[in-house]
Amino acid sequence: MKLNKLSQRGMRDILPEEMEIRNYLLEEIKKTYTLFGFCQIETPCIEDIKNLTGNQGGENEKMIFRILKRGGKLDINNVSTVEEIIDCGLRYDLTVPLSRYFVNNMEMLINPFKSLQIGNVWRAERPQKGRFRQFLQCDIDIIGEKSNIAEIELIAATDFLLKRLDIPEYKILINDKRILIALTLSVGFKEEEIEKVLICIDKLEKIGFDNVKKELEDLKMGTTRIEHLLNILKCDDKNVSEFAKRIDCQFLDSNIITNLESIIEMSKNINGVKIEFTPTLVRGMSYYTGPVFEVKVEGYTYSVAGGGRYDEMIGLFSKNSIPACGFSIGFERIIQILKENNFRNKVSEKKVALLTNCGNDKNELLKKARELRLQGKNVSVFLKSKNYRFQKEILEKKGYDIIRIDY
What we know:
Layout: H1 16-35, E1 39-41, E2 46-48, H2 49-52, E3 66-68, E4 86-90, H3 95-105, E5 113-122, E6 134-143, H4 149-164, E7 170-176, H5 177-186, H6 194-201, H7 204-218, H8 223-235, H9 240-244, H10 254-271, E8 275-277, E9 291-297, E10 303-309, E11 324-329, H11 331-340, H12 344-347, E12 351-356, H13 362-374, E13 378-383, H14 388-397, E14 400-405
Parallel strand pairs: 1-5, 7-8, 12-13, 12-14
Antiparallel strand pairs: 2-4, 3-4, 5-6, 6-11, 7-9, 9-10, 10-11
Helix pairs in contact: 1-4, 1-11, 4-10, 6-7, 7-8
């Protein structure tokens, strides 16, 4: 059988040099979030298809890798739709699995529960720079805490990690989905139109106001309402209260404004976080119900972290209403930034290469290697190549100190 040497689009092989950075980042994530009291858990990569298609994941639900039924359950001869032969799929994020996990295990968990979850997710989307079909996500979530201490702790922990990693100039953007909903209602949109409007607003940074206006017009949303909405969003007030004055107060509870201002103020004053109210921030997931946040790094078009409050998600798996809030680090994107900033030199552990001629005594060589390993050194044994100069150059480039053994 002839094997295909090319990897699938959106999938990739990872070389040892990058694995050093990835392992370093994983350790820093675990150490940092543990300092904030988060407990690591693990969930399966496969979920029931009904859990994944509950109209909570927004556009991501269109990109699920679906899995066919197996064995006797798979009968392709007597079906009218593809859905009839699918019973599960690969998870597209970690939040849906966490919600199911919490409901299944809540009697054994502390309340509120502070979760750290690290794992691969899969989305059948068009690959591009910093975006893959398989990628690692690192989520922290607080379940069971309805006060804004949850948002403040999540923001503080994420900021602490980014500072620890020496990520270049970045800021945390924050908004509240309820403010956007109130705004759309205030300018005349109906409740059943809100989700479509928010999907369009979410594209503002990527395609600009003119193209968003065109998309809304194509949806026949009404020119007057569209212009009123976009004109308010163009004001881009950095003060929550000032922006709220543009919204009819009958649609917006003042407690929402007070809550958001409190999160911003405490994040700045207590933790020294660079955080900014951004009224155009939406976040694509349908499950967000309150504050949403995102991290942008100067010079990069994509965000490197994002999250928000999702108080209704766990209720889909339980009869009880349980508050929840989470923040997800864009692991692959941070890796990309670290690589572009030559971060490898900071994490590479010095290694030792023991080189010997082919005819030399291997016993002495292996004894020397064992002696160095007992000292905690990373040791590899190599036979000396005929082209020693080239071999030495490659090993040094890979971070090795070279010791020649010529007995």
